[in-house]
Design goal:
binds magnesium ion, about 25% strand, binds adenosine-5'-diphosphate, alpha+beta
Length: about 325
Amino acid sequence: MLSEFDLIHRYFTRPPAADTRIALGIGDDCALLQPAPGMQLAISTDMLVEGRHFLAGADANALGHKSLAVNLSDLAAMGASPVAFTLALSLPTADADWLAGFSKGLLALADLHGCSLIGGDTTKGPLNICITVFGELPSSAALRRDAARPGDDVWVSGSLGDARLALAVSLGELPATDIDPELLALATKHLDMPTPRVALGIALRGIAHAAIDLSDGFAGDLRHVLERSGCGATIDVDALPAGPTIAAQPQARRRAWTLSGGDDYELCFTAPSHLRADVLAAGLAADTAVTRVGSIDAASGLRLRDRDGNPLALTPASFDHFLTP
Ligand code: ADP
Ligand code: MG
């Protein structure tokens, strides 16, 4: 039997990283972070609950990846670079295979981003994974939700809708046989192992005004930016970058799930229109597609248009834990 301390030692403790920003890692009552002069800490927490954010029996390696990815996505949306994270883990049993898979997926993504595991808490209970990430960015460089301005372009990274399509298949809302198996595998990868747009967020410092990461669906998440910034937007729904799998689906489904599918983990950001070339260059530098999908208006509200500019009467739903059945 694995004890709590064996478990932490075996699966989550590694030699201290040679990182001057981390003065002390796992093993004491607290970890110690040392932000560089002129830098601010960016901090965010996300929890993943079995049966709510992932299905029972989900692949442990993918779950380790996704647990950190959704947190890194929040750092990306602020323009912060990852430094460290803590892991609070509630587990029904100390299953060695599960722990090996989970920690492998988790730490592989952490290594990719130079983000060290510096502490956490481990307890027995229903499977629940809570991560807090710490990032850094130059003071006043953050891409805040309240910084969109009328006249800004609205941009989206990568592609939308494929994760929702994969979720629909895994929930039995859509038969898998309706979808090309290779395309379905791609969409499932987008759902299970999202790529946080960290490099893009950093490249957009000093270019973008506002940014948010798309976890609950484009329209609902953009609304948060509009509310915080006190403005509105006009969006060309047909310009939303559809993932390869949803792109092959009927128009109504493609529009609905690119607009409000959820689980995309792309960035939506606004930038002044005279900086279009800089946005495209940031996308290239970060090796991430960026697509212009509309503009910010002074008048509040979200106006949806088709590719010919005709108003679309879609009422996009956004995921809400207490409102969505
Ligand atoms: P405390 O009694 O202060 O809560 P613990 O005994 O829970 O401390 O943890 C001992 C050390 O192991 C601490 O440094 C803590 O941050 C770290 N730790 C506990 N669980 C995890 C985990 N799942 N991942 C990484 N570090 C962990
Ligand atoms: Mg503890």
